[in-house]
Write a structure and sequence with these properties.
The chain is an alpha+beta fold. The chain contains seven helices and eight strands; from the N terminus they run H-H-H-E-H-H-E-E-E-H-E-H-E-E-E. The chain has an eight-stranded mixed sheet with strand order 6-7-5-4-3-2-1-8, sandwiched between helices. The N and C termini lie far apart (84 Å). Bound molecules: coenzyme A (COA). Coenzyme A (COA) binds next to strand 4, helix 6, strand 5 and helix 7. InterPro entries: Acyl_CoA_acyltransferase (IPR016181), GNAT_dom (IPR000182), NAA30-like (IPR044542). Belongs to the acetyltransferase family. MAK3 subfamily.
Length: 239
């Protein structure tokens, strides 16, 4: 009987401390996974996550970084732009490609900067020129990238919106771009802004992947790109 009492007492104690014990065990297991089975390691990882989440609840919440949007000014910004694009786009570009766009259409490229760190965390590079027999003005988005840690905060859409406005001001009748046909994120972003799928381009990229050409009609009387609200936390210092 006493054994049973002791057992039920310890059961109750164990129940009461269950969460804490589980977290402890989980953290131990997580830090020494080699001693555990695969299943135990998975549970440990979950437990460790839970414990981590509880810990972070007590930590002060870091304020979101303030983002400045600036127009391209000179080559002193080029290194940051290239670093970002080289990390995020599959297609390699030479410095001459950057210069081709930036020297001819400097007003059509924009950077998003982490104001505090003064680092370039987003970039868009475009051109605008007559196209086809009708001589309509075609805008082209050549490069768009947002640093991984800053994504999903409307920085990409804000850059696209700024580029659209600049190209429309320059007389664009339409704006096009290509993206890997598997790039769901970019396709969703552009479709949200009014772009439509125009063509599928077979093995368009050097890596053999097909592209979609996306197009936005934006001649006189056509609304486009205006339906995405800018993030109010963002500031813009381009002119
Ligand atoms: C594509 C990219 C620029 C998006 O930048 P971002 O700042 O995260 O985009 P936003 O926060 O403005 O996203 C706007 C919308 O795009 C869509 N979107 C963006 N990233 C997405 C993703 N990974 N999956 C699905 N939809 C996504 C969503 O509809 C999103 O709206 P929501 O936040 O209301 O859901 C960024 O992911 C990136 O740099 N990718 C690598 C480079 C690249 O693919 N460039 C485009 C080549 S054309």
């Amino acid at each position: 009987m006493s054994t049973a009492k002791t057992k039920s007492k310890s059961k109750a104690k164990a129940k009461a401390k269950n969460g804490e014990k589980h977290a402890e065990t989980s953290l131990q297991s997580a830090s020494s996974p080699s001693t555990e089975t695969g299943a135990a390691t998975t549970a440990a990882a979950t437990g460790a996550k839970g414990a981590g989440a509880a810990k972070s609840e007590r930590e002060p919440i870091e304020p979101l970084p303030v983002i400045d949007y600036v127009g391209y000014e000179s080559e002193h910004q080029l290194q940051g732009m290239m670093y970002l694009i080289e990390n995020d786009l599959s297609e390699p570009y030479s410095i001459y490609t950057y210069r081709y766009f930036l020297h001819q259409w400097p007003k059509l490229s924009f950077l998003a900067m982490d104001k505090e760190k003064q680092t370039c965390i987003g970039v868009i590079v475009c051109r605008l020129e007559p196209h086809g027999r009708s001589n309509s003005n075609r805008g082209y988005i050549a490069m768009l990238a947002v640093s991984k840690e800053y994504r999903k905060r409307k920085i990409g859409s804000t850059l696209v919106l700024m580029a659209i406005e600049a190209m429309k001001a320059g007389g664009a009748d339409e704006i096009v771009l290509e993206t890997e046909y598997t790039n769901q994120g970019a396709i969703a972003l552009y479709q949200q802004m009014g772009f439509i799928k125009d063509k599928r381009l077979f093995r368009y990229y050097l890596n053999g992947v097909d592209a979609f050409r996306l197009k936005l009609f934006c001649g006189p009387g056509v609304e486009g790109g205006a339906n995405v609200p800018l993030n109010p936390e963002h500031s813009s210092s381009h002119s």
